[in-house]
Amino acid sequence: MRTALALFVAVSMSTVGSAAWAQNAPAAAPAKCENPNALGVTRVVEIDTTGGPGFGFEHFKAYDFLRDKEVVLTFDDGPWPGHTPAVLKALADQCTKALFFAIGKHAGWHPEILKRVAAEGHTVGTHTWSHKDLSRMTQDEAVAEYEKGLAAVSIALGNKPVQPFFRFPALRHPPEMMKYLADRNVGIFSTDLDSFDFKTRKPEHVIANVMKKLEKNGKGIILMHDFQPATAAATPELLKRLKDGGYKVVQITGKTPIEPKKEFVDMVMKEIGGGLEEARPMSSVIKTIKEN
């Protein structure tokens, strides 16, 4: 396992603020941490996604790259007003980083939030165009759902390449799409610890679910949703609990970003409308001036 792991995962021992961290960061180097007791980032792990390796023991067992007491923070289904900014603030307060799997439509609706995610040094992957279950679609439909999601995220980030990471909706992995993504050199993320925040809907339950599973497993890739209000509310206390429990955060970054295909960029631009890459925040364009 360790030999195979070396083919795909290059581990950087850098700490927040080091030269190696700045080199590997998916966006501009983060601001200096003002919290001396912050959770921070212990390691930055660069993944060579050639051939589409999978991560997360719920579905993929080959690459056990986390050490004891290490976690990867992942958030699905954003960007979303209110909730994603609240998660970002909590992460910034603890000077730590996460991996966000953005939905294409949400990126198209709220590009300013996704730009902020990247600008603050987090890693941005994709989570389809509209969160449809790819196992219930034809292969052509599933490919379009993936590619449109990638195109929308790229456009929202200013027509930039995207980190080569993808998470399937509902963690359902149809074999044909696994092969397609392997050919596209996209790394697949499942999870080690599911917070079930979409079911519990209470901040205290989100925290309890994560901590209980961590105490049992000792480490893991944590699945949460920045779309969920309970998660936005839970994140500050959860990060504190991780720090108090001696857990350490690992940030994931990709060796080679992925470019969207032009036909799907054109499709997304036609569907959402021109000017997406320069879109102003919705609040500066539309506001309620009267409501009965």
From TrEMBL:
- Report whether Nucleotide-binding shows up as a keyword of the record: no
> GO molecular function of the protein, one example?
hydrolase activity, acting on carbon-nitrogen (but not peptide) bonds
Signal peptide per UniProt: 1-22
Q: Which residues form the NodB homology domain?
A: 69-250
Q: Among its keywords, does the record have Transmembrane helix?
A: no
> Which Gene3D superfamilies does its entry note?
Glycoside hydrolase/deacetylase
Offer a single GO CC term for the protein: membrane
Q: What protein name does the entry list?
A: Chitooligosaccharide deacetylase
Q: What is the lineage of its organism?
A: Bacteria, Pseudomonadati, Pseudomonadota, Alphaproteobacteria, Hyphomicrobiales
